[in-house]
Amino acid sequence: MRTNLRGGNEDPGFELFFKTNLEEYTDFPIEFENPLPNWLKGTLIRYGMRSVTIRYDPLRSVTIRYDPLRSVTIRYVPLLHEDGVTPDFSEVEKIEALTRGIDNMNVNIYRFERNESKYDYVVLNDFWKAYTIDPLSLETKSSVTAKVPYIKETSPRFGFLNLLSSAHPLPEEGTSSHLTFLSSVSLVPLVKSTISLVRIHSLHQRELIAKWNVDTVPYMHSFSVTSNFAVLFASPFYVNTLKMVKNAEPFESLDWHGDQPTTVYIVNLKTKELTTLETENMFAMHHVNAFELGNHIVVDVSSYPNPDFVGNLQIDILLDPARRNGFDPHALLKRYVIDMESGLVERTHFDSPINVPFSANLDMPVINENYRHKEYCYTYGIVLKHDNMSLSNIALVKKNMCGDTTKDRSWILKGHYPVEPWFVQRLGSVQEDDGFLFVPIIDGKNQRSYIAMLDAKSMELVNKAYLPTIVPYNLHGRFFEDIV
Ligand SMILES: [Fe+2]
């Protein structure tokens, strides 16, 4: 790996990703340079790393402010933060924070059906708790901690931290439900921790599908669902309960075991039967998609040899050119084929072609959601440091998962910094990649943000609209076609 030691002169404006922006605009019209297709209607909501957020705490009726990227934090109510807070909590505040749970729901946005054609819009992190928001004003409405489905009203509620879940629930095929998991960390010696697979009927109504004991709770950010199965890859990145209680910093309380295999949990959604298998040692933040082929389950993930890159995603490192260019941020797309008869897990990895020599290194994968649970061909994502020199050289990438790498494409513009795209299929089209990618991009030289629209077939930029203010780094988003 080569390191760029020339400093940050080559990437003006990259630091805007990580700068606080308090400007707000409501119903501000933006103008695309070219006419938009007349079938295109909807609302794109991005959610992510806002440097300062104001939240209302319903328990104490006070306003709190926090900084999820670890700069100065002003605290009024102790709430758990993924990477801790500055200054540190007192011992009493740590217990309060563990009891109250997480606060920074800055990772993803979903909606759960409330009743016919009515939805609750939720913002999520890797936790059981969620915030509901108004999808038009983006105003935070309430903090919701759904009842844990296996705890009876009369059961004691102490002894477990029912905290960890997924920022990426997945729709259940043929239903209006979603699926997620809940990890319950035991605080009682000799009592096992558990992982549960849970059906989300609605924001408040959850159903237990399966629950199993584990010796240690793995950190899992996402998982996979096919027509009949949920597949969880439990990499050996385990919650250290003592550290968790001592420090009240979830992400700082994880231990990586590079010598242990990844445990694969497969739950049959119909019979609720659990199958436990093993595969290689690896770490994956994002599953791409999964589907069934006869007795086989095919699972595609953006994998890493270990979770070290996560530790480098700190604001002091990201703002320092030498440090940010000095670590390897590259994932590798891998395919795991699980034979449900023999229990064998066969692993292959995807290759990059000469014309896009980094296409298999993408993370933040998105697909045409109409192909969720199905055989599919295309995933889109980003590759940081595509030139192996500078982290800020970010490529938008299209990867053909069906074999012909000559169909891989990328979009790169020096000094322009994209984040995860979102795919919208052309109305009425039956071709998987016939549609557009929408992606916020910072134009570093001009110190402006714009929404780019790329033709997903060619990955050419076909339209863009400059925004009235800078959009700092944001992780995930979603296009809601019926919000207009
Ligand atoms: Fe994610």
What does it look like?
This protein is mainly beta and 484 residues long. The chain has a single domain (14-50, 104-480), classed as 7 Propeller (Methylamine Dehydrogenase, Chain H). 6% of the residues lie in helices and 39% in strands. The chain contains five helices and 32 strands. The strands form nine sheets. Strands 8, 9, 10, 11 and 12 form a five-stranded antiparallel beta sheet that branches. Strands 27, 28, 29, 30 and 31 form a five-stranded antiparallel beta sheet that branches. The radius of gyration is 22 Å and the shape is globular. The N and C termini lie far apart (46 Å). The relative contact order is 0.15. The structure holds fe (ii) ion. The site of fe (ii) ion has 7 residues, from β32. This is CCD8A-like protein. It comes from Mya arenaria (Soft-shell clam).
